[in-house]
Specification:
- GO terms for molecular function: glutamate dehydrogenase (NAD+) activity; nucleotide binding.
- Keywords: NAD, Nucleotide-binding, Oxidoreductase.
- One of its GO terms (biological process) is L-glutamate catabolic process.
- This is Glutamate dehydrogenase.
- With about 425 residues, this protein is of the alpha/beta class.
- The protein is built from 14 helices and 12 strands.
- The strands form 2 sheets. Strands 1, 2, 3, 4, 5 and 6 form a 6-stranded mixed sheet that branches. The protein has a 6-stranded mixed sheet with strand order 9-8-7-10-11-12, sandwiched between helices.
- The protein starts with a helix and ends with a helix.
- Bound molecules: 1,4-dihydronicotinamide adenine dinucleotide (NAI) and 2-oxoglutaric acid.
Length: about 425
């Protein structure tokens, strides 16, 4: 169990290492120091205090954040996280990464991100609804369909998006489906958004396996995290014939070198991505990361591959479905060990791509089939994979720096044309 001080210092180091990589990218692109000064922090950061009437009649005051990293390209976009370890520094880093994800995928957005310090697993449905609505009331001045568009992230889901959309629509007194994405389909959500992050990860894996001349059907895979991202990644890989030998959640991990039965695990997981509590023969998350496999997919939280365990990772490909799971020192160790690292900015961008499609459909009031959405996602992700892969070879950099280079260019140019730099 990590302490609050440890969580704060790891969030600070997350931001510092994001800034160091951003500095490297702006230098390689030949931008002046002023560009880095603009891009190293969000242009806007709001901290809110949210009073929530709890079921016992008492009021609990929660702290939340919304960061808007850069709005030169267009409105900002990014998820809202409900988690005990949320911090201002973490939200700042996540918003910077959202700008880069939007840049890599050529979406007409800058990056935003939000979070509330809370533990939704300890809250009732009614308390969660009041917290979701309270958060929207507090940030309503700075968000909106043409300003900043939230979406789901860790421990938030389509029901929470529905409450948030309803609250925003009541405040503004008009129906505003384009205020938020990741909504239920009946409220203007997009077909394919629920599975989009996992589909994006799958597409990256298929491209990576191709460039390495390997076969997906022969691959043994370990996935850390069994929530929205992890559970669908497991399903898609299992359906493609890969052997999923390990999965985990916050409490522990399951490992079987002969392969796990993913359909059964998916039937038994709860809405918080918890399943290992139903088994006796569990191992720890730390042990799981070092087990034999070909592809390792961190799909939970940040700072899971560090200088402490990177040298013992057995996988040949590491695919970051989570945001920030690998530290900079660990990135260097993996790259030096000839492990292909597909960075979060690329691998986890399927979610925001389909969120963009959802917003487009809301704006035009005309909705696409799941096949159309998946096809459009596939086209974009394949293009982005090769963009980052080729940038790495052109700049002789690791894949993470390449993703920063590919993601920075559009917002830097937009900031320049606006006369900010
Ligand atoms: N949902 C989405 O559309 C997107 C999610 N992501 C990233 O993917 C990651 C997972 O997100 P979701 O699947 O949406 O979240 P989720 O809330 O659906 O699932 C989270 C999973 O991580 C596990 N977990 C939580 N704390 C953990 C810890 N300390 N150690 C190990 N496991 C832990 C939970 O038990 C659960 O299985 C996050 O880093 C998120 O930012 C990135 C892009 C889009
Ligand atoms: O779907 C979105 O708009 C944002 C998803 C997100 O928060 C992320 O990619 O980290």
């Amino acid at each position: 169990m990590t302490t609050i001080t440890e969580q704060k210092s790891s969030a600070t180091s997350l931001l510092q290492s994001a800034q160091a990589t951003m500095k490297n990218a702006t230098n390689k692109l030949g931008y002046p120091d002023e560009m880095f000064a603009l891009l190293k922090e969000p242009v806007r950061m709001m901290t809110v205090r949210i009073p929530v009437r709890m079921d016992n009649g008492r009021t609990q005051v929660f702290t939340g954040f919304r960061a808007q990293h850069n709005d030169a390209v267009g409105p900002t976009k990014g998820g809202v996280r409900f988690h005990p370890s949320v911090s201002e520094e973490e939200v700042k880093s996540l918003s910077l990464w959202m700008s880069l994800k939007c840049g890599i995928n050529n979406l007409p957005y800058g990056g935003g991100k939000g979070g509330v310090i809370c533990d939704p697993r300890q809250m009732s449905f009614a308390e969660l609804e009041r917290l979701s609505r309270g958060y929207v009331r507090m940030i309503s001045q700075i968000v909106g369909p043409t300003k900043d568009i939230p979406a789901p992230d860790v421990y938030t889901n389509s029901q929470i998006m529905a409450w948030m959309m309803d609250e925003y629509s009541r405040i503004k007194e008009f129906d505003s489906p384009g205020f938020i994405t990741g909504k239920p389909v009946v409220l203007g959500g997009s077909q394919g958004r629920e599975t989009a992050t996992a589909r994006g990860v799958l597409i990256c894996i298929e491209e990576a396996v191709n460039v390495l001349n390997k076969k997906l059907e022969d691959a043994r895979v370990i996935i850390q995290g069994f929530g929205n991202a992890g559970s669908f990644i497991a399903k898609f890989l299992y359906d493609k014939g890969a052997q999923v030998v390990g999965i985990s959640d916050v409490l522990g991990a399951l490992y079987d070198p002969d392969g796990l039965d993913i359909s059964t695990l998916n039937e038994r997981r709860d809405s918080f991505g918890m399943v290992t509590n139903q088994f006796k023969n569990t191992i720890t998350n730390e042990e799981l990361m070092e087990k034999e496999c070909d592809i390792l997919i961190p799909a939970a939280i940040a700072n899971q591959i560090t200088e402490r365990n990177a040298g013992r990772i057995k996988a040949k490909i590491v695919v970051e479905a989570a945001n920030g799971p690998t530290t900079s020192k660990a990135t260097k160790i993996l790259t030096d060990n000839n492990i292909l690292l597909i960075p979060d900015l690329l691998a986890s961008s399927g979610g925001v791509i389909v969120s963009y499609f959802e917003w487009v459909q809301n704006n035009q009031g005309y909705y696409w089939s799941e096949e159309e959405v998946d096809h459009k996602l596939h086209t974009k992700m394949v293009h982005s994979f090769h963009k980052v892969y080729e940038t790495a070879s052109r700049y002789k950099s690791d894949m993470r720096t390449a993703a920063y280079i590919a993601g920075t260019r559009k917002m830097a140019e937009a900031s320049r044309f606006r006369g900010w730099i």
